[in-house]
Amino acid sequence: MRSGDDGDSGAGADPAEADPAEADDLGGRPAWSSEDQAELAGHAKGLDVLGERFAKSFDAFLAEHRACRALLEEHMSAGEHRRLLLDHVRNLVGDPREEPAMSASAHVGHAHIRAGVTPSAYLSSYNLVFPAYHHVERRPDVELPEIGAFRRRWLYDVCGTVDSYDEALRAAWESERARLASSLADSVTRATLDDLTGSLRRKPFVAIVERSRRQGVLVVVDLDNFKSLNDRDGHLVGDQALSELVSVLRDNTRAHDAVGRLGGDEFGIWIEQAASADAASALLGRVEEALPLERWDIGISAGCVVCPPGPRDFLDLYHQADIAMYRAKRTRKLRTGRLSVVVAASTAKRIG
Q1: Which residues lie across from 30 on neighbouring strands?
Q2: How far apart are CA 223 and CA 290, in angstroms?
Q3: Which of 54, 92, 201, 241 is the most exposed place for a label (fewest CB within 10 A)?
Q4: Which pLDDT value is given to residue 348?
Q5: Within 10 A of 15 (CB to CB), how many other CB atoms are there?
Q6: Which of 123, 129, 60 is nearest to 88 (CA)?
């Protein structure tokens, strides 16, 4: 509202007829006109005097608020701060609609953020400019800009400064959200995947098998003579063998199949929608061809069990596949091959 308005003219008035100088812009800042800009630019000397008085008021404020003074002294001297205050008031002659003035307001906010000044402390101290204005306007030798225009310019500057707090908060929130999302993803990965081989851990593998309602084949795979490989060539070579086994298994299974480490050198394979164990035998044949089993001097024994559609119990499946796997071990000892696969005598039972 301009100086001299009676304050009642807006009651019941048509918004379309409102004083454009009273309307806010889309950012919530007071509207600014060319007339307002001319008013401020024509009183640059008065703003210099106002800056001096404002700096004195600020000195008194710091004397009463020891915490604010201590915070200020961590970053600059009182003389440096006084100079910044004077420059800031003097720079109000800049048009707030243009980039230099908007950047200056944001710069104040960023400086306060780095120093740890809260928005409430900033607002309570910077509003001391209005008592300073009324003190200076009583001097006959000083001409100040009209109070309405000055108030809008000052609020425009305050809005720009406070906006920088909001921008910093948003940036911090986005950074923290990204960090937490990454940390959560890492936690899920660590809880789901085996650290050494990248296969599923036992628990998530079991969950996939039991959650599936489609027909499938569970394969339990065990490496024969693996302990001898570790003792002969070292655990690094043994770890490499496990990792290469999983890599080959994953290369030869589909996206909806699953490979999990059940413990040690024992792995599980869930082949979904397989009508018989032939798919498992073919898969393990490709694995045998891809791995240097002879160089490692180890073999693969596998037990398979066909599971009908519907609910199933993993322990029942595992028990039957495990028995078949140990039969495969005995069978492999009777021949020279590196791979032995035995299918369970009966399919797994449905539960429920």
Answers
A1: 24
A2: 15
A3: 201
A4: 55
A5: 7
A6: 129
List CB contacts of 172: < 8 A, sequence separation 6 or more: none
What is the C-alpha separation between 164 and 161, in angstroms, rounded? 5
Section 324-339 average pLDDT: 82
Give pLDDT, residue 48: 94
Question: Two tokens at 49?
Answer: 């005097």
pTM for this model (two decimals): 0.55
Distance, CA of 351 to CA of 284 (rounded, Å):
29
Residue count of the chain: 352
Phi, psi of 306 (to 5 degrees): -85, 135
* C-alpha to C-alpha distances, 97 to 4, 80, 107, 165, 338, nearest whole angstrom: 26, 28, 16, 19, 80
Residue type, 119: P
Two structure tokens written together for 96: 């707030």
Alpha-carbon gap, residue 278 to 274, rounded angstroms? 8
